[in-house]
Specification:
By secondary structure, the chain is an alpha+beta fold. It is built from two helices and eight strands, in the order αββββββββα. It has a single domain, classed as predicted glycosyltransferase like domains (Thrombin, subunit H), CATH 2.40.10.220. 17% of the residues lie in helices and 46% in strands. The protein starts with a helix and ends with a helix.
Length: 136
């Protein structure tokens, strides 16, 4: 996905707009962990699957088959599968979205999280999953 960030055909803003300002720690989601950490993004009346690239307490970056308009707010559901399945629902505001090879790369700020404690649980689960998948 990092390579995709360099190729851009803006569809609703771009990272060059200066909207990508997250300063807190970002939690990257390696390919090997995508079976344990999944993202659904609401588009219209339905949720569509997205590929989560990274997340922080205030922002998110994902790849999705649908385009979003800069400034739109929508709901997301982040699922974590370990011993027990957990979901975190939150609202995002799209900062930029651009087309890339039949898909769309979207950067958004997190407006609200259903349960702040679950974000902390996500951080712990993320670290556990990444360590389990990549022991090096």
């Amino acid at each position: 996905m990092a390579n995709k960030m360099e190729k851009q055909s803006p569809a609703g803003g771009s990272p060059e707009d200066g909207d990508e300002k997250r300063r807190e720690k970002r939690y990257d989601i390696p390919d090997a962990c995508r079976q344990d950490i999944k993202l659904l993004v609401k588009s219209g009346n339905e949720f569509v699957p997205a590929i989560l690239a990274n997340v922080s307490r205030n922002g998110i970056l994902f790849e999705c088959p649908v385009s979003f308009i800069k400034g739109v707010q929508t709901e997301c559901i982040l699922s974590i599968s370990l011993r027990l399945d957990r979901e975190i629902s939150f609202v995002i505001e799209v900062r930029y979205c651009y087309a890339d090879n039949g898909s769309h790369i979207t950067g958004a700020s997190i407006v609200s999280i259903s349960d702040e404690i679950w974000f902390d649980v996500f951080v712990e689960a993320h670290d556990l999953i990444v360590l389990r998948k990549d022991p090096a």
